[in-house]
Amino acid sequence: MLIFISMAEPVTGDDNAMLEACIAKLAEGDVSAMEPIYDATRASVYAYALSMLKSSFDAEDVMHDCYMKIFSSAKGYAPRGKPLAYIMTVTRNLCLDRLKESGRTANIPDEDWEKLLRVEDVPSNLEAAGWMKILNDEERQIVLLHAVGGFKHRETAQIMEMPLATVLSRYSRALKKLKKHIAEREGEI
Amino acid sequence: MNSEKIENGIREAFESVTPDIKAELIDDIKKEKGRGKIVKLPTEKKNKNRIAGRIAAIAAALVLLIGAAFAVRAIVKRPDKAAATVMIDVNPSVELTLDKSNKVIAASAGNDDGAAVLSEMDLTGSDVKVAVNAVIGAMVRRGYLNEYANSVLISVESGDPEFGTRLRDTLGVDVREIMGENEFGYAVLCQTMEPGSSFDTMAENYGISRSKAQLISRLVESHPGYSFEELAALSINELGLLSGSNAVSKLRTFGSSSELAFIGAEQALNIALEDAGVPASEALNIGVELDCEHGVMVYEVEFTHSGLEYDYEIDAVTGSVIKRECEPSDDEPAAPGQTEQPGDPALISSQTALGIALDHAGVSEKDARDIEVELDRGDARLIYEVEFKHNGTEYDYEIDAVTGDVLKAETDGEDGHATPTPKPGSTAAPTAQPTQKPSAYIGKKAALEIALNDAGVSASQANDIEVKLETKNGTKVYDVEFKAGSREYEYVINAKTGSIISRNSEPVDDDHDDPSPAPTLISREQAWQIALERAGLTMSQISDKDIELESDNGVQYYEIEFKCRGYEYEIRINAVSGAVMKFEKELDD
To answer: Tell me, what's the ipTM?
Structure first.
């Protein structure tokens, strides 16, 4: 299994300009422009899809559909300087479609984060899997959009269609929970 | 550890598991582009699955193969590389053996009808969805599936349970979609086969498929009144109808089975009303349910009218009256308070007590946290102690467990001072939840609680609970059965007084103990869909809608209530299987 460990920093404003240029090239039919889009966003797209669907199989499918959709609707894309948020919104909508279609609620009890983060193959993910478990769905998605996607809370609020205040309070509650959890674990040792 | 480190850790973890699909993606995009122009991908069907694109081509190839006779009558030994077996039962029974990539490596027929269906096609090498599509298409063409029999049973067997469950779920959605194209509606029943089950012999003895045998045993399990033998004679459609009336474990159902071959609930009710000489507008507490009695499909019809309780069984096909019972319902409904005798009180449920406390506090259940409800013996009477928190305030209630009266209401702010909340102006007990109807009987919940109390078993310890209202020697009783620990309990409780008539307990035979994994719940939307389908109504026709996810002794269900055209509906949907556990339609007055 190929494990990709390049440490891409979260996407920045520069990336936004780059992404927008790439989408414009895609619209002209330049398939190679998909590569930089994919490279810059694949982890964010997958993480967000995984947090919504809790199935690596479905998340991979959505990831694929997401880029196909970006390609197919590149011509209609209106540049507003926020291509990354656009990509995440596409991801979210595809996930919601899928949840609706399979009739599953997002509240799958006791999702197995050790499996989703493939702790067996990547033992160092054990800690992160433990963190994912103590967060609820919303908290997890907000934290992931911030940590993996590099989104500002304002952008997260937009993507998740939530008031900014809610995002802020959920985020700080989530980090409080995580820090408390980590302190307790350290205390045990 | 600071926030930044935590976030870095999370990012690394997710990056390490992100699959690399770049090559495949670029390839697919090039193909898409190769079609001449950038095609929008809007139709759901295309977007749904990555394999969907390939399906059209395979389906076209299949058409060419139609006519090539290929019926395997004998039981095929499963090849070593088989990853799963999919069984499709209507009446024709077809078994598809799949490899790991969900390609069909063998197709066999379980009966003559199945052989006829398979004679049209060679499915080897095709994707399972295409194969299932072809098989179901042939079943429709040959008339096995029609408006009178619209039910398909899909069963998946796999050595890898997770793979099996996933395949069951994806196939369920696929088949629903395929069946949705027919005009006659559909019911798709999905199950996974238990490994090492004994259904082979059952199947052989009764000349039915293994998958049907398993469905029947589960129905018998969920409804001990049924026998395997009587159900073995039924069609998948009839079994689908029965599983709609009973909560069947581990069965997931989409849609609802056709009732067109039968006279219908409305007609059955009319027949019973006419037989009883009761005008439709005057009957109350109406309940109609499809059931099977001694191998005959019947409608069980219940209603009350001017102090009498009627109980009918109507033949579901001919409409003839098979059984009629009529007895006085209690003319002196036990007034709250009078029943308050130590030992056998008619208690309200803990949920009702909580509801009363929340109502009183003006807090909705979803906003309340740290809810605790405990049945306690107060000064000479039973009380529920209810505690919960809301917005930093602690609420502490005592609710009379018989009358539902609020005996104590205290709030405790963050300052730690208890403040008694004044009781509401009227001393009348808050009206009980709408699920409780004025009835002369103590109710199933109360009967269960009495039995549990007597057995010294808490509600959370008990499982396989069944409470039935029955008539024994002319007395209405609740037959309460449950298991706890390694024992099986059976109680008979007087339905009016709540006194225990008999109790019995014995060690349980622990043969089929299966700790099932946490189940996936169906969505609220789906629950609505099932409920409305059952009622034969659409969302736009109904009003006063309400849906709650509730849990009773480990069974999670949606309680759905709504009104339509002067009737009040109460429908209970199993949140795991989607089965209709209860269907009530009453005149709204």
So the answer is: 0.88
